[in-house]
Amino acid sequence: MKVTVVGAGAVGASCAEYIAIKDFASEVVILDIKEGFAEGKAMDLMQTASLNGFDTKITGSTSDYSKTAGSDIAVITSGIPRKPGMTREELIGINAGIVKSVAASLVEHSPNVILIVVSNPMDTMTYLAHKVTGLPKNRIIGMGGALDSARFKYRLAEALEAPISDVDGMVIGGHSDKGMVPLTRLATRNSVPASEFLSEERLNQVLEDTKVGGATLTKLLGTSAWYAPGAAVSGLVQAIACDQKKIFPCSVMLDGEYGLSDLCIGVPVVLGRNGIEKIVEINLSDAEKAKLQESAEGVKATNGLI
Ligand SMILES: NC(=O)C1=CN([C@@H]2O[C@H](COP(=O)(O)OP(=O)(O)OC[C@H]3O[C@@H](n4cnc5c(N)ncnc54)[C@H](O)[C@@H]3O)[C@@H](O)[C@H]2O)C=CC1
Ligand SMILES: O=C([O-])CC(=O)C(=O)O
């Protein structure tokens, strides 16, 4: 199993590190345009192999896509991150050009690749990857919901004063400050609805804190987050590589599902060796449907800018 990670920056390196530590891939290639940067990150990570106990071979490349040839999965993290006070949508001007050329180069060298798009604004960059590559729908996956759901569980556990392993919850919709739809109605603590433990007001606070999860970290760090994003990507890569058939909310091209078409937005999907093996249509309440619709309108407006 060969995995390429484009972008050796904060998210790309974290993602490569988590993939290596989980030790399911034979090879990880990191590629960046900054001369020597990917090679340096790869060497540094390889020097953790004997310490962390993995056999994954990590190599770096400066813009040489021939080294990525034959990749089964490729992750696109190349592009600029936001600074405090910015929205993800404001990154579109620079990142659209980067994602366009990177996606085309990846597919040229690995025609059977499954693409995972991370660069922001992620739903629109995923849509752009479809337009550029023409790959089948099951082979382009946007990563946002897995991260947003992890942040939702963090906030739920905090409110419930419970261990995170005891809580479950999912975020669908666009990966944006306004567009996320945390499904508080379906959140649970060990199968018991979270609403049995928390007031409506406290659950709403959890929802609001989840939606601004990325912005909160950007304000604290001065740039956007990387540990949880890297871990979330590695979870998707592992589900595909190991044919796990796990459900994650991912940004995928919809064709009538949830009453939406011609956009990529976060909905639950089953991930396995073929990429997106099924889009799972869950019964949403009228209020949740309205929020998803509103989120879709936001994503479509951003898509209009490419
Ligand atoms: N979807 C999600 O949940 C998340 C998305 N992001 C997004 O991921 C992207 C990367 O974030 P960071 O790693 O923090 O940024 P970073 O600045 O640390 O790293 C980006 C890397 O991309 C490289 N790069 C730029 N153009 C390239 C090209 N044409 N080909 C190859 N490499 C190129 C840069 O040299 C740099 O090393 C940002 O757009 C950020 O908003 C970040 C966190 C979560
Ligand atoms: O907040 C950002 O800009 C980066 C990102 O998408 C996240 O961490 O959720």
Automatic annotation (TrEMBL):
Catalytic center residues: 175
PROSITE patterns: PROKAR_LIPOPROTEIN
InterPro entries for this protein: L-lactate/malate_DH (IPR001557), Lactate/malate_DH_C (IPR022383), Lactate/malate_DH_N (IPR001236), Lactate_DH/Glyco_Ohase_4_C (IPR015955), Malate_DH_type3 (IPR011275), NAD(P)-bd_dom_sf (IPR036291)
Domain Lactate/malate dehydrogenase N-terminal, residue spans: 1-142
GO terms under biological process: lactate metabolic process; tricarboxylic acid cycle
GO molecular function: L-lactate dehydrogenase (NAD+) activity; L-malate dehydrogenase (NAD+) activity
SUPFAM superfamilies found in the cross-reference section: LDH C-terminal domain-like, NAD(P)-binding Rossmann-fold domains
UniProtKB keywords: NAD, Oxidoreductase, Tricarboxylic acid cycle
Catalytic activity field: (S)-malate + NAD(+) = oxaloacetate + NADH + H(+)
Top-level EC class: oxidoreductase
Domain Lactate/malate dehydrogenase C-terminal: 147-301
Alphabetized Pfam families for the sequence: Ldh_1_C, Ldh_1_N
Similarity comment text for this entry: Belongs to the LDH/MDH superfamily. MDH type 3 family.
Full protein name: Malate dehydrogenase
UniProt organism field: Nonlabens arenilitoris
Lineage: Bacteria, Pseudomonadati, Bacteroidota, Flavobacteriia, Flavobacteriales
Gene: mdh
